[in-house]
Amino acid sequence: NVNDLRCSGCGVAIQTESPEKLGYAPAAALNKDPLLCQRCFRIKNYNEISSVTPNQDDFLKILSGIGGKEALVVHIVDLFDFEGSLIAGLHRFVGQNPVLLVVNKVDLLPKAINVNRILNWVQKQAKDHGVRTSEVVLCSAKKNIGFDRVVEAIARHRGKKDVYVVGATNVGKSTLINRLIRDYSDLEAELTTSPFPGTTLDLVQIPLDDGRDIIDTPGIVYTHRLTELVNKRDLQTVLPDKPIKPSVFQLNEEQSLFFGAMVRFDFVQGARQSFTCYVSNAMPIHRTKLERADELYEEHKGVMLAPPSKENLDNLPPLVKHSFRIRKGAQSDVLISGLGWIAVNSDAGAQIVIHAPKGVKVAVRDSLI
Ligand code: GDP
């Protein structure tokens, strides 16, 4: 009986039905010794954490659990993928508790950007997405920008309450928490983990010097982010780590841009205009004619058009189309969650099609920059 089998790596109950859920192993692997769930198999054989941990249920249980406590909720999002990393409807779960929105990775934007403009933009976007916040703070955990503001805002909103830190994976939660531990906690005390009732997840507790704790919750995996669909090596290409140098393309209608073999941008119709790509500097962009694009993709995916490389192409969901009409005079970004965005500053309007892996969030928004 499959239900009695457990992974000899992590101990989770094995199931063969849902590859995206915890404990999945392909039926053909059941008689292997040792028996490993797919996640442990990948960690063991490829040294790679796969995105197979959507403990959505457990995650929501934890969030609801916070609603029953008096706490400050610190919600960390990634400025590079703001919409993709927001926890929609957070306040429905955390009840009356105040939410401090910490927007990380500001170092990725060009230096000349006006901070107040970004703050206003973030506040408006958060509101439009129904995310209520007591305050918004911009920072870079990695480059140590704005960290004092984060600490100061936590102190101000916390009173004597515990602090729960929530966020999606790869937003920089660990980086920020490690800084908090160094600057803020009672260094004599040890970090502890405690199982959260009714879930398979452990919470990490960081003691503060007033006897309260900062509690790190597991990062939720949002598979609508391209960053969660690629392997560790390709993640280094997709995830920017230095200030983004935007690439500007003057395109005629019926021209296309490939971002590796991950995403394709078609300028279908409109007057000649420029498109500014805010993606990781390491992401290769390839320009071609729209009429050649299908053929080029078939011939060169995984080699000239990479990442992903040939052997990893099959792990990426097939590309699906999203069509947009950019209004005349609009200043818009076409966001591809996890990849970045393409700014369109269109006097004449533009008809655009994005081909992105199935499930990846694609949307048009007011321009950030
Ligand atoms: P977690 O999954 O949310 O805990 O994220 P990590 O702290 O592991 O960070 C994910 C990735 O983002 C790592 O490659 C970090 O180096 C990077 N990162 C974290 N904070 C920042 C930041 O402020 N700026 C930039 N550019 N990268 C960051």
From TrEMBL:
Entries under InterPro entries matching the protein? G_CP_dom, GTP-bd, GTP-bd_ribosome_bgen_YqeH, Mito_lipid_metab_GTPase, NOA1/YqeH-like_C, P-loop_NTPase
Question: What residues does the CP-type G domain cover?
Answer: 60-223
* Gene3D superfamilies xref list: P-loop containing nucleotide triphosphate hydrolases
**Protein origin, superkingdom:** Bacteria
The cross-references to CDD domains, in alphabetical order and at most eight, read: YqeH (cd01855)
Q: SUPFAM superfamilies from the entry? A: P-loop containing nucleoside triphosphate hydrolases (SSF52540)
Q: Per its record, how is this protein called by name?
A: Ribosome biogenesis GTPase YqeH
Organism listed in the record: Paenibacillus hodogayensis
Provide the taxonomic classification.
Bacteria, Bacillati, Bacillota, Bacilli, Bacillales
Gene (UniProt): yqeH
